[in-house]
Amino acid sequence: MRWWRYDLPRQTLWAFMVAVGLTAGIGWLISALDQVTVEEIQKSEVRGAREGGIDGYDAGFERGRLDGGGRAALAIEQLLESGDPQDGYQRAYDFSWNEAITIALLRAKRDKLEVASAFDEWQALKR
Amino acid sequence: MTEQRTRLTGWGAGEVETVWWKRGRDPIGRHTMVAVVFGVILAALVGAVFDPLNLLTAEDIRRAEQAAYEIAFADAEPLGYVDGIPYGELQYLGAEIVAGDAAADSAYGDRFSDGWSAGWNEALTAMRQTALDVGLPENYTEFRVLDEFEPR
Question: Of B69, B88, B141, which has the smallest distance from its Cβ to A111's Cβ?
Answer without folding.
Answer: B141
